[in-house]
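> example.struct
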């Protein structure tokens, strides 16, 4: 175990860390440069969400929450600060929420239609950041997937 004063530094792959993926290759200050997910990576991510939802259904869980806040991967795709993609997952707000909506769709196909799927979108108000009014525009789109 590292001493306390070193616990908040990035862990290299050689030290047992892992490759970080993101919407774009924009590093957080003092951290590794993330690898922008390509179409194959996004497809694999969707497959992983589908498989997880199937396991949740098999276990007869009562609900699923998709975490899309606090700077994690899905929030990273939704934010204009961390998403500078020029494909169908970047640019406009509708494009930046596309991955989240695709996840809702794949999870909804695998999980019980009678059980809720929730989502934590979080928000960070301010110049160029997520705007709670815009986030609410994602809600009617999500309702079609049982969210």
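> example.seq
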């Amino acid at each position: 175990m590292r001493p306390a004063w070193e616990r908040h530094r990035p862990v290299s792959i050689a030290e047992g860390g892992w490759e970080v993926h993101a919407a774009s290759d924009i590093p957080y200050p003092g951290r590794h440069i993330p690898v922008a997910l390509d179409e194959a990576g996004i497809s694999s991510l969707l497959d992983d969400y589908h498989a997880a939802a199937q396991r949740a259904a098999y276990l007869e869980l009562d609900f699923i929450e998709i975490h899309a806040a606090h700077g994690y991967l899905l929030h990273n795709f939704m934010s204009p600060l961390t998403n500078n993609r020029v494909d169908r997952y970047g640019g406009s707000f509708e494009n930046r929420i596309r991955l989240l909506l695709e996840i809702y769709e794949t999870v909804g196909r695998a999980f019980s239609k009678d059980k809720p799927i929730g989502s934590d979108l979080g928000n960070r108000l301010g110049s160029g950041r997520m705007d709670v009014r815009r986030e609410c525009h994602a809600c009617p789109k999500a309702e079609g997937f049982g969210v």
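> remarks
The chain has one domain: 33-143.
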